[in-house]
Amino acid sequence: MDAFTHMLAGAVIAKATFEPSLGKWGIISGVAVAILPDIDFLLKFINKKLYIKYHRSLANSIFFLLPLSLFWAYVFNSLSGLHNFSHFALLSFLVYCSHIFFDTLNPFGTMIFAPFSNYRFSWDAVYIVDLLFSGLLFFPLIASYVFPHYSRSICYAGLVSLGIYIIFRFINHAKANHKNRQYIKANKLKSDNFASLPHLSPFRWKNIIETEKHIYKGGVNVLKPQHSDNCYKSWPKYSHQNPDEKSDWIQKALELPDVKVYLWFARFPVMKYQGMIDDMHRVAFYDYRFEGFKGKLPFVYVVDFYSNGQVCNQQFSRNWDLRTFIKGKKEYYSIRLF
């Protein structure tokens, strides 16, 4: 989830549980513990490769849940001078649990078993920025200050309402994912990797199916399931700028260690040989799990080769456009990346 929602959750949990005994320090510790596991987000501004490799890893692991909860309880118990370690410990534990659970709800994935496993676990139930999800925390928090005598009851009701909304999301996710299974069976596809990814609306989902050579993508509205039966379109996993062209540049890129890290991170990768760009052979990778904004694609990884096969450059490309790319000073608006 986004940082703001995590902070809201920390504050609401604190007010619903230990506000009488911890007072303002309960709110402070709840908000701090809720946001601290995301400190590794700063890696994004240092090195994006490190970011995809380590974000939501050790700090979000269930094996560090108890030690870190006790550590932050000790810190805030000492800072506050309240000498109520047990309540700080229980609050930190509850807030930390909420952080890990909320992060597993969206498609980015969380390495909850780090350092013993780097598998990114995800329920794919909630969009990373969900206004209704956040609102079910924000409005009870505001109301708890307007009606302080009912503060705990209001926040508790907010948490219960949020729980009901999450269950509602899970139910709709199961309905959408059932469409994937139906499509796989009806079209006799061989696929063990498919998902229904959340949208801002709890009723709309992005269905993706991966086969050996293709990615199938379709939009599903669980309120209108009859309109979702023939919504899938397919794209080749491996493609070239010229459909008749064949080359070994994609295979060369797949052998690079950093590309292997990217493919570990990507759940539905597609790759394309872009041809010669600035006298270099370019291969681009994209993960269909992520949506772009105004045509801009996140997490596009680009590898440029010299003609002799040596790597010139490999990096994440910022603001890569789905429909256009720049070659020198000329813009080609008719070319699609994927």
Order of helices and strands: HHHHHHHHEEEEEHHEEEEEEEE
How many DSSP-defined strands? Answer: 13
Q: Give unreliable regions as ranges.
A: 323-338
Number of helices: 10
The largest beta-sheet arranges its strands as: 5-6-7-9-10
Q: Give me the secondary-structure category.
A: alpha+beta
> So what's the overall shape?
globular
Helical residue percent band: 40-55%
Strand portion, in percent? 15-25%
Oligomer: single chain
| Overall residue-averaged pLDDT value | 89
Taking Cα atoms only, what radius of gyration do you get, to the nearest Å? 23 Å
Major beta sheet, specifics? Answer: 5 strands, mixed
Task: Explain what the structure shows.
The chain has 338 residues and is of the alpha+beta class. Among the domains are: 3-122, no CATH class; 238-332, no CATH class. 42% of the residues lie in helices and 20% in strands. It has helices at 3-17, 19-22, 24-35, 48-54, 65-80, 85-104, 131-146, 151-186, 249-254, 257-265; strands at 193-198, 204-210, 214-221, 233-236, 238-240, 269-277, 280-287, 296-297, 300-305, 311-317, 320-321, 325-327, 330-332. The strands form four sheets. Strands 5-6-7-9-10 form a five-stranded mixed sheet. It has a four-stranded antiparallel sheet with strand order 1-2-3-4, with helices on one face. A two-stranded antiparallel ribbon has the order 8-11.
